[in-house]
Amino acid sequence: MSINTQSQPPLLNMNKALDFLFEAAVVAKKTQMVALDEALDRVLAADIHASINVPGFDNSAIDGYALALKSEQTNVADSQNFEITDRISAGNSGNPLAYGCAARIFTGAPIPKGANCVVMQEDCKVLEKGKQIEILQMPRLGENIRLKGDDIQMGAVILPAGKHIKPEDIALVASVGVAKLEVFKKIKVGVFFSGNELVEPGSPLPLGKIFNSNRYALVALLKKLNCEVINLGNIKDSLNATTQALTKLQDDCDLIMTTGGVSVGEEDYIKPAVAKLGKLSLWRIKIKPGKPLAFGSVGKSAFMGLPGNPVSAMVTFFLFARPFIKKMQGIIHYKNQFTQVSCNFDWHKPNPRREFVRVQLDYSTLPPSASPYPKQGSGILSSMVWADGLVEIAEDTTFTQGKVLNYYPLT
After folding, report:
1. Residue 132, phi then psi, degrees to nearest 5
2. Which residue among 303, 328, 353 closes a domain?
């Protein structure tokens, strides 16, 4: 799908562009062992099997009294009295329980041999200075007992390879005694920025110059994906400096990313430098915002060039770079997920490009309703702060308020 950098390529369907990217993504292979405290947001490299049952023994689900009942003692309307013969707290095991006897028991404590239900302490009345209890409401057999292996069966796969590790995943593996996890090593992403118009925040801003917001947006977006970022910062706007930056990154990074300088026909040094050192595809994607996108390779690194307009850069990162990087990381579910919302606006101007509109959601309706930001220009960076997500409007579409569309949350 390489394209002559001097030609005007036709607009490329978004789905075809994504298919090409996913096919080209090289999934991480290098792994490392990390402690549970270091595992958050990493990607699991191997299935985790449970080596034990959880719970490992029958235990009480409540604070109350374990009873040894005969079947005829259940479902009886009248209250019954039981002798208290034992006291069992969590971490301790009790003695066998004879019929007609009760054991004071606490949540998580092992069910003693002979016991077949637990009654809530609220349904009991203590008699004879703590030596007997009167059961005011008789429990069913098995009630309030958590059975061995009720949560996790020994040998079961509790987390699959490719899982993006969340706090609850760490809790789950800890519950089966796993102390370390094999995870994929973080992918390295190299970035640099060039352009005579760019000025660093904190510096004076001459007429005709702009502050370089894309540098900070791209680095933050990559760090949010838990990438290791190698940031060369701003480089001189020349072919030699651009070639040197690419050469420095090409063998040490899994991916090199830039913003700006990828519009067809634009005067810049990224296109010729990438083409000189590797191969480059320039795409004009049939979407709005974010039409220009570059993809290729330099040495061992994949290369992706995003548009220069701030909103276009962030939207194309979300639509293309994020799922591409997630697949490289080894994540199973790498594609962007959407829900459906009802649009709180009319759309009377059909667009030949698929459009992604920045919206806020109102959750007081079902499905939630989406309202657009008043200004949808690709330079309106404040709209990205305001928006909850993007609604997808298909090519050549018009509709009135109430239309249900796909919605992609930005988080």
Report:
1. -135, 160
2. 328
- CATH number at 375 reads 2.40.340.10
Whether 276 contacts 210, CB under 8 Å: no
The residues near 110 (Cβ < 8 Å, ≥ 6 apart) are 57, 58, 59, 88, 92, 93, 94
Q: What does pTM read for this prediction? A: 0.87
Number of structural domains in the chain: 4
Residue 2 lies in a domain: no
Q: Which tokens belong to 197? A: 């118009």
What does the pLDDT look like over 322-338, one tens digit per residue? Answer: 999 999 999 999 999 99
What is the chain's mean pLDDT, rounded?
Answer: 92
Is residue 4, in this structure, part of any structural domain at all?
Answer: no
Residue with tokens 């990224």: 270
pLDDT tens by residue, 124-171:
999 988 899 999 888 899 999 999 999 999 999 999 999 999 999 999
C-alpha Rg value of the chain to the nearest Å: 31
Q: pLDDT tens, 42-95?
A: 999 999 999 999 999 999 999 999 999 887 766 666 678 999 999 999 999 999
Give dist(CA 335, CA 364) in Å, integer: 28
Residue keyed to tokens 């305001």 = 386
Q: In terms of domains, do 41 and 162 share one?
A: yes
Query: Could you tell me the residue range of the domain that residue 380 belongs to?
Result: 339-409
Residue 36 shares a structural domain with residue 172: yes
Helix axes 239-250 and 270-277, enclosed angle (nearest 10): 50
